[in-house]
Write a structure and sequence with these properties.
The complex is a heterodimer. Chain A contains eleven helices and 18 strands. Chain A has helices at about 20-25, 35-50, 75-80, 90-100, 115-130, 150, 175-190, 205-210, 215-225, 230-245, 345-355; strands at about 10-15, 55, 65-75, 105-110, 130-135, 135, 160-165, 170, 195-205, 210-215, 245-260, 270-280, 285-290, 295-300, 300-305, 310-315, 320, 330-340. In chain A, the strands form four sheets. Chain A has an eight-stranded antiparallel β-sheet with strand order 15-14-13-12-11-18-16-17. In chain A, strands 4-3-9-7-8 form a five-stranded mixed β-sheet, sandwiched between helices. The longest helix of chain A is centred in the first third of the chain and has 15 residues, at about 35-50. Chain A starts with 11 loop residues before the first strand and ends in a 15-residue tail after the last helix. Chain B has helices spanning about 40-50, 65-75, 105, 130-145, 160-175, 190-200, 205-220, 240-245, 250-265, 330-335, 355-375, and strands spanning about 5-10, 15-20, 25-30, 55-65, 80-90, 110-115, 150-155, 180, 225-230, 235, 270-275, 280-285, 290, 290-295, 310, 310-315, 340-350, 385-390, 400-405. Classes of the chains: A alpha+beta, B alpha/beta. At the A-B interface, helix 2 and helix 3 of A face helix 6, strand 12, strand 16, strand 18 and strand 19 of B.
Chain lengths: ~375, ~425
Amino acid sequence: MTQTGYVGASSSITAEDVPAFYEGAKFYSPAGGDANRSSVISWLAGLLDRNGPVPLLKVEGVPPETPCVSVCVLGSGSAMADLPPAGDEFVLAVQQIERLQRVRFGAVYPLAAATISALVAVVTAAQLRVPLLDADGMGRTFALIHHTAMHLSGVSPTPLAAVGPTGESVLVEVPAGPRADRMLRANVDTVGGWAALAAYPTTAGVLRRAALPGTVSRITNVGRLLLDRTDPDLLVTRLGAITGCRRLARGRIAELEHLSRPSDVTIPAHPSSVVVDEIGGLGRQLRIELRSEIVAVFADGALIAGAPDLMCLLDVSRGALATLDSLEPGDVIDVLVTPADAIWYSPRGMEMVGMGSHGIPLAHPRQR
Amino acid sequence: MPAQAHIGVTLRPHRAYAAVVTGTTVDVVEPVAPARADLEGVISAAAAIALRAPGGAGAVTVDLAPLLYDTLVRPEAEVPPVAVVRIVPRPATDPALGRSPAELVERRIAHRWTVAGGHDLLGNELCPLDHAGLATVCSELAASGIRHVAVVGAGSQARPAHEREVADAILAAVPGARISVAHDYGGQGLVAREATVVIDCALTALTERLLDRCERTLARLPGSLELRVARGDGGYSTPSRIRVTPVVAFGATEALELCGAAHLARLDDCRVLLPRGGRRLAGEVRHGLAVVRPDEPAGIGTELVVPMAVLTAGPEESSLYLQPEQPPHVLACVGAAISQPASWLDEVAFIESADQLEHVRRDAEERATAMVMANGAAPGTTHVAEISTVALPYSPSGTVRVRVRVAGSPDTSLARR
């Protein structure tokens, strides 16, 4: 197989890229905490040192008949931090599908090119010694495994395999994608709160039309900016130049609230809210609605951003991203919003991952 | 009523420094080098000043952190070898996942064992404890001659049963072993929790020696000076507590410097720039307490679960920051002298209703309050300085992380005499 890199973007991921890749992946999903940051970086950098850089290929650069499979971490980053991987979970999950389908995958891609899920895709590619595709299914993270561009394009997530840190595994085949997530969640809790997932086995040809392109190569550049730990104003300006993000407001966290909206137990993490008093500007009171991600931001009661927008928080004092499990009253934060991939603003995309899916049936600001 | 004088001491690798704080007055102790630049000489010189204060002399709060850090980073430093017993469902298949990412931590580890067992974040058992494997570990450990043992189990902060069972078995096999168990510290992340107990074990002997010296020095002095030890979060604890949890004293200096700078500027809330090796690092003080987090301390290479000051690269625009004129060691001494007893709790809980959330918060506050009183706070003086409960992303609905920080006023009845 010809392995084609491309000009103007990274054509491989090396051990030296890993710290920036970690930070950049956090920008596209601020959900996970940093409790096992150094261990994950050490694991991936060690693998890349031993096995060499992982080639990062455009989907178009891979022969269309190449079998490909996506991987991600299913479940909680906090659970994964306290029960770290033994190291073979992702490869075992991929190999289960290989045995079932009697194929050998020629490339791996992240189900979600964000947070720890972006890193484990590199881990898996390095362990299997196959290239990583510069594409994913979400362009960020969403709550459920069928919240993907592949699902919208009619690609089934199954057969899928989930392997837990206990070494136990589950193989799922369902006729309808949304059933798979419900079947998996209970098993994930049983094996320790997280599992290595291999799903969406398909071909590169299908991914050319079904996956979101360029979502892996951009991560390292974003991460390099974040590692600079520069002045927050300058950082936001620089991030805006390469991601299209903008600052909605700067403010101090006044309150953290829980169970602040009706709960839908099919989606992980209960609804909670962060109340922020804007510093300067219009002196507004912001209300940030959370599930596992930020789902909406209101200013003095008016909706100013909402899913599927990518919203994240920058800890102004530290000049670093604030993860949702580390927020504290008194922290000064910048609320940043970045447009998601266009596919998520389509009627089907909005129905699946828009604010309505989180119990906030309001028109999206970009549609008014 | 005239103010009592309090002494702050910071122990640096090559000399000790002290300052006496009486209300808003600060007297920097200038020992006569070299004979009086050591711990005993500096404390004695500071006590001589403090005992002349109209309100009398109160306490001596010692910052051990620079010496602890120096000992940890010097490969040739005499530190007892530490054994690690990790309790997880199965051992790591990749060497990087079976060790600490921090070389500084790993080089203190003489041997590692894994015993099958462990729980999830909410305390559900994932794997029964492997008693046969534990028996083998105990017999190998007894034969190894290692007497300092760090034990960390997955989910032990929620259910410490496996850690306790392992610790009991080790103690039976190796009488007199110094065992540090991770559930004593709570926090998030097995690797961070493991590094915390390894450092705890490694620093035990040095901490004991330093506190012995401090206590002998105070015993020779007139008055009723009470010994306190600065914590990483900028508060203080009693010597007896620090002897069994020395890692709590690790990394105290930065928080003390921040609080010292704020005190000298007579500010309760401020951002402070501290000089560090030609650079400036920024930290923050809120309501008189340094902003702290469990994080990756500079130069360690891994996260720890004991909170320390959050320091970041200084900004280009520094007009909004306090830039103290006093040298860092003076700030640390002042910060130590004015420190309050403190406690910190960081754990995961499960709620299904607002009532349960309130119960979880109240329970955490009560336990943190009991801890701060054990650390030297007077009854009735404690207050919740910070509390946050956040939903854990991608966890089952109802899973929350609870963090509580409690501070109090010193219990003066703890004075030596």
